[in-house]
Write a structure and sequence with these properties.
Elements lengths: L4 H10 L13 E4 L4 E4 L2 E2 L7 E3 L2 H6 L4 E2 L1 H17 L5 E3 L21 E5 L2 E3 L2 E3 L26 E3 L1 H16 L3 E7 L5 H6 L1 H8 L10 H6 L3 E8 L2
Parallel strand pairs: 4-6
Antiparallel strand pairs: 1-2, 3-5, 7-12, 8-9, 8-10, 11-12
Helix pairs in contact: 3-4, 4-6
């Protein structure tokens, strides 16, 4: 049987999971998240001890796991803190930016290496649930109701407390690097349940900004994940 180069490449990528960042030089994020570019970015490791990047297709073939070096450090440090505060929790990292930034369909942002999509942590019977981690690019197609319950299985729901703890860890790590969490995008009708949690109240008290309005198409797309834009303090 004749095996093509493309098939061999696919097989190789499916078994490849880099555990170290890629890239060198001083990172620069030019322009804005909506009109910008990334210079000397860093590619996330494919996986860490308590997280992994969600899709090998967008990681290798689409090249969408790049961020500013400081943003990489923020995300990695936050995961390390969560490993202590939530040892049973495994996180899922989603799309970031292209290697050189710029437009990345279908996102309106993600252009200068300071934006990251994080999959919403899930729970089942009040315990961490990780059955969504095999979905790959189809994770973006998961749908949740206004109470954060997975529409295809109401026993599975968003763990808002874990989400809030993660955001607090990101905010803490960002401040160490003269950066901050500029904006969080989460489906509007999920915010009330988020802010009801113990850690969600802490997020609110810190004044971390959550989008107050989103066009319907964008709003509906942010139930399975929360989008975060980081920014440099002036």
């Amino acid at each position: 049987m004749k095996i093509t180069t493309q098939i061999l490449l696919f097989i190789f990528l499916m078994g490849c999971s880099p555990t170290n960042p890629k890239g060198k030089g001083i990172s620069t994020s030019k322009g804005t998240v909506k009109n910008g570019e990334l210079i000397n970015g860093r590619r996330f490791p494919k996986k860490g001890s308590n997280y992994k990047y969600f899709s090998k297709i967008t990681y290798f073939l689409k090249n969408r796991a790049w961020v500013n070096a400081k943003v990489l450090d923020i995300a990695i440090e936050a995961y390390k803190e969560c490993e202590i505060t939530m040892p049973e929790r495994k996180f899922l990292l989603m799309e970031c930016s292209h290697k050189k930034g710029g437009k990345m369909w279908p996102h309106r942002t993600h252009q200068n290496g300071t934006s990251i999509d994080f999959a919403s942590p899930l729970k089942k019977n009040e315990k961490p649930y990780h059955g969504d981690q095999w979905k790959g690019i189809f994770h973006y197609a998961m749908n949740f109701d206004s109470f954060g319950r997975y529409k295809r299985n109401k026993k599975i729901s968003i763990d808002f407390e874990a989400m809030a703890k993660h955001i607090l860890a990101l905010d803490k790590a960002a401040k160490k690097r003269n950066m901050y969490v500029k904006k969080v995008l989460l489906k509007i009708n999920l915010k009330d349940d988020f802010f009801k949690t113990q850690s969600g109240k802490k997020v609110k008290a810190k004044g971390i900004y959550f989008a107050k309005y989103l066009p319907k198409l964008i709003d509906n797309a942010h139930d399975d994940h929360y989008h975060i834009d980081f920014a440099f303090k002036k």
